[in-house]
Amino acid sequence: MSRKPRIAVFASGSGSNFEAIAQAAADGELEAEVVLLVTDKPLAKVMERAERFRIPSVAFNPKAYKDKADYERTVLGRLQEEGVDWIALAGYMRLIGPTLLDAYPNRIINIHPSLLPAFPGKDAIGQAMDAGVEMTGVTVHYVDEGMDTGPAILQREVPVVAGDREKTEAAIHAVEHDLYKEALRKLLAESAVTE
Ligand code: GRF
């Protein structure tokens, strides 16, 4: 039997999406193995979550490298050591450059808390609330060199709770945790057919 697809999650913050993916893989809900957490923020809460799941983690300081390509070559070396097949960005606050994109064509995905192309970039929930829209949502998309510009894989609507950022955010996060698993299941099933 062939081995399970190996996923690296990249995250810079709390890591609730990392946890949702790790939990799904641990429960067999996702036929994949989360083999590595990559962070650019050694103190991020996501590191504690990785420890709880006994998933190896690695923190890189991008400022310690000559440029993005140099930084990404080091990250790539570690991904190759771990035999990583897919990269899932989950609150990773950096743009991905050609070094990683060329090494993982159509294998790097991201989750964003809006119905892209609406409200790309930082604080998408705040942007949606400020714009006064009634409906926002979540997008899982392929990553390219732009900021939240790659083609969508799955999207789901989430209503804005007018004037209540906390409730809107909680509803979005709940949908994110579900949608990321669903998108990964879909991609892994499709790639199993084509390989
Ligand atoms: C999520 O809202 C995700 O859509 C965005 O960053 C946030 C990360 O949250 N890209 P968490 O760290 O997974 O809790």
Ligand inventory = 5-O-phosphono-beta-D-ribofuranosylamine
Q: Which range does the strand content fall in?
A: 15-25%
Helix content: 40-55%
Q: How far from one another are the termini?
A: 14 Å
Number of helices: 6
Strand order of the largest sheet: 3-2-1-4-5-6-7
Order of helices and strands: EHEHEHEHEHEEH
Shape: globular
Largest sheet: 7 strands, mixed
Mean pLDDT: 96
Instruction: Evaluate the radius of gyration.
Output: 16 Å
List low-confidence stretches.
none
Describe the structure.
With 195 residues, this protein is an alpha/beta fold. 40% of the residues lie in helices and 21% in strands. It contains six helices and seven strands. Strands 3-2-1-4-5-6-7 form a seven-stranded mixed sheet. Strand 2, helix 2 and strand 3 form a beta-alpha-beta unit. The longest helix has 30 residues, at 165-194. 5-O-phosphono-beta-D-ribofuranosylamine binds next to helix 1 and strand 5.
Secondary-structure map:
Elements: E1 6-10, H1 16-27, E2 33-39, H2 45-52, E3 57-59, H3 68-81, E4 86-89, H4 98-103, E5 108-112, H5 124-131, E6 135-142, E7 152-159, H6 165-194
Parallel strand pairs: 1-2, 1-4, 2-3, 4-5
Antiparallel strand pairs: 5-6, 6-7
Helix pairs in contact: 1-6
Bound molecules: 5-O-phosphono-beta-D-ribofuranosylamine.
